[in-house]
Amino acid sequence: MLSKLTLLFNKLIVVLRIERKQLPIFLFLLALSTLFWVLTVLSKDYTTTVHYEAVFVDLPDDKLLIENKEVDLHLQVIAPGFTILAHRLSFRNDLPLSVSTFIPKKIGEKWNYYWLGKQSISQLQEVLPTNMQLLHVQPNRIDLMLDEKAERVIPVQIKSELSFKDLFRLKESITLDPQTIVISGPKAVVEVFDAIGTKTLKINDIDSDYSGKIEIEHLNHSEINYSLNSVNWDIKVEQFTEGELKLPLSVNNVPKGYEIKLFPDEVTVNYLVSLDQFELVKTNMFATNVNFDGEYKRLPIELVSQADFVENVRISPSKVEYFLIKK
């Protein structure tokens, strides 16, 4: 391709009888005339269609767009070639449309704000380049659906996958700071949610206290805004151990004129307790009961009270045998 152009250029020089030493002057004059031709062409006015992307501004403070609407505006204009060329070379062409100039109409619980192109020619002209005259715009109507803006305070619920080393456990529930978040958005959307979760907190082999920060997991609605994007968390850990004690058994509803002998006459109580509370456990914090029922050969043992800071309480055996002895 380059060789063909070189050959054609050499033929042109021969035809025009241009000497080699005159070639730079010829090229300069050719470039200069081309420049003047381009300037003359671009200085003329042309009728054409230019494209802008509508950007909606000045929304009412108490309302929100329900959807992210993309609208391409096709404007028929008269403008100098320079202005048209600059527009075509622009990377992005946005045209702001003030929603405050739209016409509102309530539809049910929502609002329809609509814009009419023919009635907005003068407004559009104000935001266009001064040497660009607007003739016509398409589409002639734009509809936006808005909803009342609402705010709601909802609790944050942390998601966690925790594992502990042997004989360690959570001392209390994971604490969050803050415990609530304010969400805002369209009223119909905000009222649906009663709580919001976090990303999943994953920690393995825990044997001490932990703290940190975790991100809020945004709800599945792009229209919702959040007062914060993360919360602080705190984990308190305690070491625990197993305790054991013996309790005597008592029997209710023994028939008159009889006394009862239980086998065994005491029960073993096993429980889990925090290591720092182990010495606080006393026998009188627990109580058992056996209800006599002559239809059964073995009577079930019931645990009727226990210390409120122990857990996983087990009694053994769960039933006792008995003899009735006539007085």
Report on this structure.
- It is elongated and about 135 Å long.
- It has helices at about 1-15, 25-40, 80-90, 120-125, 185-190, and strands at about 45-55, 65, 70-80, 95-100, 105, 110-115, 135-140, 140-165, 170, 175, 180-185, 195-205, 210-215, 225, 230-235, 235-250, 250, 260-265, 265-275, 285-290, 300-305, 310-315, 320-325.
- Helices cover about 15% and strands about 50% of the residues.
- The chain folds into three domains: about 45-150, RNA Polymerase Alpha Subunit, Chain A, domain 2; about 150-240, RNA Polymerase Alpha Subunit, Chain A, domain 2, CATH 2.170.120.40; about 240-325, RNA Polymerase Alpha Subunit, Chain A, domain 2.
- Strands 2, 5, 6, 8, 11, 12 and 14 form a seven-stranded mixed beta sheet that branches.
- The model has no long low-confidence stretch (mean pLDDT about 80).
- The relative contact order is 0.09.
- A hairpin with a 2-residue loop joins strand 5 (about 105) and strand 6 (about 110-115).
- It is built from five helices and 23 strands.
- It has about 325 residues and is an alpha+beta fold.
